[in-house]
Design brief:
The complex is a heterodimer of chains A (322) and B (622). Chain A starts with a helix and ends in a 43-residue tail after the last helix. Chain A has two domains: 3-73 and 92-119; 139-279, Immunoglobulin-like. By secondary structure, chain A is of the alpha+beta class. In chain A, the strands form two sheets. Chain A has a five-stranded mixed beta sheet with strand order 3-2-1-5-8. In chain A, 37% of the residues lie in helices and 18% in strands. Chain B is globular. Chain B starts with a helix and ends in a 19-residue tail after the last strand. Classes of the chains: A alpha+beta (322), B mainly alpha (622).
Chain lengths: 322, 622
């Protein structure tokens, strides 16, 4: 068999397998790829994953088909002469140049696409630090209002809802500055609303991962890490800590729910009233909180007047009061 | 006094006792560590003097101490027989064999811990271990495996083969080379000692402030990294200098074997990246022991400092692990396809390109951390760019298969498996580099599977390829082929069955390092765990093959069982103390397989390897 027909055979097989593989992925697998469609960024996450998948599959098939062909055809069998000289021994410059050019184009295209997607809201669920470069309309104003104690939200308005996520060993709690700064253990959100998450920690680094919302932001002590979500569907979602934070990291999870705007408003008003006796003891809403020496961080560094200065043992388990 | 492993153990033990006593004496009332009654200073000094005692006991410090006092060091003649493997020795071949045993011990320990992890994950809510023990196991597994992986090829095969492959009689700095091994073993003990101090809860990444909060096991982690870091810097420095300066006459850069190129790239990374790890560890120790606040936000430090320093080392570290694997397969594939290596220059450029770019990608580990978001497109770009030189390795491999005459011996099977596994690991890396997709997959089992595919699927398969390929040279004995085939197929199949489901588990929302997970993921986790146990059994097959082929039923290896043209196969068997009786002159490119009339790679001055009159007295030697 001459070189041309051998290459034609390989390329034909590759094109067929790639087309079939990509179509199967896009129509059968792709729609089921997490995190789903609960927020716009979740939808775009899924879309981007599938774009990368249909780009990657032909690359994978190319190598597999080549290796498979080599295993069958280019093996040491009785009567097969050594691959002496000729085409087989040469490292064609054309092939090398083509490979480098094509891989460079694919890779740089992926980077350009990723950047464009990032400028859009595809990655808006990722923690962007205290000064996000991408923010939905009104998000900065809503956050400013929150810190000034002027946050409001109503079902009729289109303004974003600010929710603060406070992580500590080993639980998440959530503050709603638009509802008197109340703090809850469960994350409840309204649908069809831009949400601004201000994520911080009281002790070590955690990571707030609201899986179906496609939100993931490290909770750093002393730092406000901002992430966004635009809720599109009602339903339940899972929250997990995604950064190792000590022995009970594996148990640091709970769930949340996206409700209709009116149901959310009803829940929020009711909870604000129920919690009011507790809320008044909370510190004023702030981007970050620094616990005192007996606080949640375990008082790593003593303030000079507390001995023993930590009520926590090595890994933070509460010790009996002495 | 004769110095050997026994004296090292005794002095190491005495050093620990002395250091601990000294620490208590210095800071007796200083029960700093999270109020648990432990004296961190005593723990640290115990470990530090243990390392010092270990090095003194083995004789690693004789030479510098004697020089310090202006006296000539007494050099013991090379010990005969097996005893030389238990001593500080200047023969790179002995050091290579010592590393083989050392890294296999590391691998075995880390592997056992992996089995424990998979046992815990058999059930989402019923637990075998308590959470503290589980985190200790996870952290120790990660740290031991990562430290093992930095040395698993450079240590055994790099030290043994590089001088043979470049036609040198020795390493540039044999004492530094031997020192690198013995401090590597000391580092292993220090990291392992964490288990006796209650472990450390941070995983191998050791993030602060959890690091600062942690108990005395953290000291073992931080100090262990620093100790192994010294070993890595020493090993890298010595090997890089050797390759640059000790090549045989005629070995121009276009004639250097590809494995040597990969080791040169790796050695450069070891030398340039590891000091950052050392410094990061030192800062952590100071935070722990003398209450500095490098990583404490409330006191002017920054937890981002650790994250950046750690990953500034940590990502080149990934390529410290990958590049030698690429080098091994590039070396092995031409032997078994009987063809020249396809696109030699592209392969070398790929190795060096990956090494260079690896310094500019580290922040992709921190996309969700809250770093300056303006930096994310840059690090997405650099991370994706590194696929280009990595892709060269595939061009070279596929080109070398083209119309070859493939001999499916065990080293070749492992090499092909690397191409299969690393492809999956590499491609999924592109998903991780994409910031929007990273939001979903970061920190999940997806990333866990990704790096196991690159490190275990790449590096470990390459290491096995290298062992099956070169052990006949190193030991004069052939590995049993039938057992080898069983080992290969079980390892390949169960590796993929263990780790591929983890991509799905991660996509379905399971974070790393958890002991509780969603009930609907139990089926996949159990499948993965059972496959992992079978994967563990395949390693037992390997160990059995090793014992069977080397000790129980040794079969003498032919001088060149694979008909390789490599220089290492041209010298006598067993390899003489100084490798080559005559320094070879390299006369042509490597890998000129199946080319009638092509000159031999090296000229030994008539009569063949290591015999006959010297062709030339190399000026670069000694």
């Amino acid at each position: 068999m001459n070189n041309g027909s051998e290459m034609r055979r390989i390329v034909t097989a590759w094109v067929i397998v790639s087309v079939i593989g990509d179509l199967l992925w896009w129509f059968l697998v792709g729609p089921h790829i997490p995190p789903g469609n609960m927020t716009t960024s979740a939808h775009w996450n899924q879309f981007d994953f599938n774009i990368l998948a249909v780009t990657a599959l032909p690359v994978v098939f190319m190598v597999w088909i080549w290796m498979g062909y080599a295993l069958v055809k280019w093996r040491d069998k009785p009567g097969v002469p050594d691959p002496v000289g000729g085409e087989a021994a040469k490292a064609s410059r054309k092939v090398q140049a083509s490979w480098i050019t094509i891989t460079s184009i694919v890779v740089i295209s992926a980077a350009i696409y990723g950047t464009v997607a990032l400028i859009g809201d595809h990655g808006s669920g990722g923690g962007e630090g205290p000064n996000p470069v991408w923010a939905p309309v009104g998000a900065v104003a809503a956050n400013t209002a929150a810190i000034e104690g002027k946050a409001t939200w109503s079902p009729a308005s289109s303004q974003p809802l600010v929710v603060q996520v406070i992580a500590q060993q080993w639980k998440f709690s959530y503050r709603y500055p638009a509802f008197g700064g109340m703090e809850t253990n469960r994350l409840i959100l309204p649908v069809k609303t831009n949400i601004v998450f201000d994520v911080t920690s009281l002790d070590v680094i955690h990571d707030f991962w609201a899986y179906q919302l496609s939100v993931k932001a490290d909770a750093n002590p002393g730092i406000n890490n901002v992430a966004f979500a635009n809720t599109q569907q009602t339903g339940q979602f899972m929250v997990r800590c995604d950064e190792l934070c000590g022995i009970w990291h594996g148990a640091m999870y709970n769930s949340g729910r996206v409700l209709s705007k009116t149901a959310f408003m009803a829940w929020a008003t009711k909870t604000e009233a129920q919690n009011s006796q507790n809320t008044k003891y909370l510190p004023p809403f702030a981007w970050t909180y620094t616990p005192d020496a007996n606080g949640a961080s375990g008082g790593l560094y003593p303030d000079g007047n507390v001995t023993p200065y930590s009520p926590y043992d090595t890994y933070g388990a509460k010790q009996p009061a002495s | 006094m004769s110095q050997h492993l026994g004296t090292a153990i005794v002095l190491g033990f005495l050093g620990y006792i002395l250091g601990h006593w000294w620490g208590n004496h210095l800071a007796g009332s200083y029960t700093y560590i999270a109020n648990n009654g432990q004296n961190g200073v005593a723990d640290f000094l115990g470990l530090a003097l243990m390392v010092l005692g270990w090095l003194l006991g083995i004789g690693a410090l004789n030479y510098p101490i004697m020089k310090l006092f202006g006296r000539e060091a007494h050099e013991e003649p090379p010990a005969p027989g097996l005893s030389r493997y238990f001593r500080f020795t200047l023969d790179h071949k002995v050091v290579g064999m010592q590393y083989v045993v050392g890294v296999l011990l590391f691998l075995f320990t880390g592997g056992l811990l992996a089995m424990a992890i998979r046992t815990e994950l058999l059930n989402p809510t019923v637990h075998i271990f308590n959470p503290g023990t589980y985190i200790e196991i996870v952290s120790e597994h990660g740290t031991i495996m990562m430290m093992m992986a930095t040395s698993i090829i450079v240590g055994p095969l790099g030290n043994y083969l590089v001088p043979l492959m470049i036609g040198s009689r020795r390493m540039a700095f044999p004492r530094i080379e031997a020192f690198s091994f013995w401090i590597f073993t000391a580092g292993y003990m220090v990291i392992f000692s964490a288990l006796f101090y209650g472990g450390f809860p941070t995983g191998w990444t050791g993030y602060a402030p959890l690091q600062t909060q942690a108990g005395p096991g953290m000291i073992s982690y931080l100090f262990g990294f620093a100790v192994i870091g010294i070993g890595m810097i020493s090993a890298g420095f010595n090997i890089a200098v050797t390759i640059v300066n000790y090549r045989a006459p005629g070995m121009t850069w276009s004639r250097v074997p590809m494995f040597v190129w990969s080791i040169l790239a790796t050695a450069s990374l070891l030398t340039l990246a590891t000091p950052v790890l050392f410094t990061a560890g030192l800062f952590g120790l100071l935070d722990h022991l003398v209450l500095t606040s490098f990583y404490v936000n409330e006191h002017g430090g920054s937890s981002y400092l650790w994250e950046n320093l750690f990953w500034f080392f940590g990502h080149p570290e990934v390529y410290i692990m990958a590049l030698p694997g690429f080098g091994i397969v590039a070396e092995i594939v031409p032997v078994f396809t009987r063809k020249p290596l396809f696109a030699y220059k592209v392969a070398a450029a790929g190795m060096m390109g990956v090494a260079l770019l690896s310094f500019f990608v580290w922040q992709h580990h921190l996309f969700q951390s809250g770093i300056n978001p303006d930096m994310r497109p840059l690090f997405m770009l650099t991370t994706e760019l590194i696929s280009i030189p990595t892709g060269f390795i595939y061009l070279v491999g596929m080109g070398s298969l083209y119309k070859g005459k493939m001999r499916l011996e065990i080293p070749m099977l492992f090499s092909l498996a690397l191409y299969f596994n690393f492809l999956i690991g590499g491609i999924t890396g592109v998903f991780l580099s994409d910031v929007p997709v990273n939001v979903t997959v970061h920190g999940s089992f997806f990333v866990l599977s990704h790096f196991h595919y690159t490190i275990m699927g790449g590096l470990l398969f390459a290491f096995m390829a290298g062992l099956y390929f070169w052990l006949p040279k190193m030991t004069g004995r052939m590995m049993n082929k039938k057992l080898g085939l069983w080992h290969f197929w079980t390892m390949f199949v169960f590796f993929n069955l263990t780790f591929f489901p983890m991509f799905i588990i991660g996509l379905l929302g399971q974070p790393r390092r958890v002991f509780e997970y969603a009930h609907n993921l139990q089926g996949l986790n159990d499948f993965s765990s059972i496959s992992a146990f079978c994967l563990g059994a395949s390693f037992l097959l390997f160990f059995w093959n090793l014992v069977y082929s080397m000790i129980i039923n040794p079969q003498k290896a032919p001088a060149n069982p694979w008909e390789s043209l490599g220089l290492e196969w041209q010298t006598a068997n067993p390899v003489p103390l100084y490798n080559f009786e005559r320094i070879p002159v390299i006369v042509t490119e490597p890998y000129r397989y199946s080319e009638p009339g092509a000159p031999a790679y090296a000229d030994f001055g008539g009569g063949g390897a290591g015999t006959g009159a010297p062709a030339v007295d190399s000026s670069v030697q000694e």
